[in-house]
Amino acid sequence: MECTVSWTGGAGTRSGMGFVAETGSGHVIAMDGAPDAVKPENGGQNLAPRPMETVLAGTGGCSAYDVVLILKRGRHDVRGCSVKLSSERAAEDPKVFTRIHMHFTVSGRDVPASAVERAIQLSHEKYCSASIMLGKTVEITTSFELVELAA
Fold first, then answer.
1. Same structural domain for residues 74 and 142?
2. pLDDT (average), residues 99-128
3. For a tag site, which of 2, 133, 135, 139 has the least CB within 10 Å?
């Protein structure tokens, strides 16, 4: 897996904290920093997610992917899945994540709660590279709700 991250503030301007990541699969992700009121030249323009937000989003995407795939492989009639991630970070540099809570909302027809619980557990213990990696230094908790769709 490869990725190239380039500063967009170069090429003459030398300001701003925007970056573009070009992934090995040919996709582009924009990132930017928060504006800095004290030293504007050190801050971003709030034009894209922060790099740490993309880490959080990637973790949610990795785990939600697993949950849907596990439920589908179990032949459950899953129709929707979202995960809301809430995080806490250290107050001092490096401002690493200290806690992450992932709340899944799974919708479908006749999907057993036990299957959703098992899918989340398998994701976090066996399949989701991102959450397993972060879980070595971050307290990660999960919860879920199941929304039954009418026939």
1. yes
2. 98
3. 2
